[in-house]
Design a protein that fits this description.
0% strand; mainly alpha; globular
């Protein structure tokens, strides 16, 4: 059921951290992944469904159009997560990103 979907979603997130697209995660890519998962997992150190969704949205945002987190994007994302403080702020972070994306879309669509 939903656990299978969660695993698929997580594998999709994992793939985005392969910034050089060489089918494995080097040391920097792993460090970025671990820091990101740790942030979203919060105090219980486990990714709950809502936390996985939030992480997925944030990672996709930073991955951009090519769908991969390169080293610059990893640094930028790390800084944003650091400034956000704790995972309890993750919802706020996702909301900010969604607002930014929808206003960017609106300006492009010209509505």
């Amino acid at each position: 059921g939903s656990q299978h979907a969660d695993i698929e979603e997580f594998m999709g997130v994992l793939a985005m951290f392969d910034g050089d697209d060489d089918q494995d995660l080097d040391e920097k890519e792993r460090a970025s992944l671990v820091a990101t998962v740790t942030f979203f997992a919060g105090g219980d150190k486990q990714l709950q469904e809502g936390e996985l969704d939030a992480m997925n949205k944030v990672v996709r945002f930073f991955a951009g159009l090519d769908g991969q987190i390169d080293s610059k994007e990893a640094i930028a994302m790390g800084q944003v997560l650091e400034q956000s403080g704790s995972s309890s702020q993750a919802g706020l972070l996702v909301k900010k990103i969604e607002d930014a994306m929808s206003s960017a879309y609106t300006s492009v669509a010209g509505t």
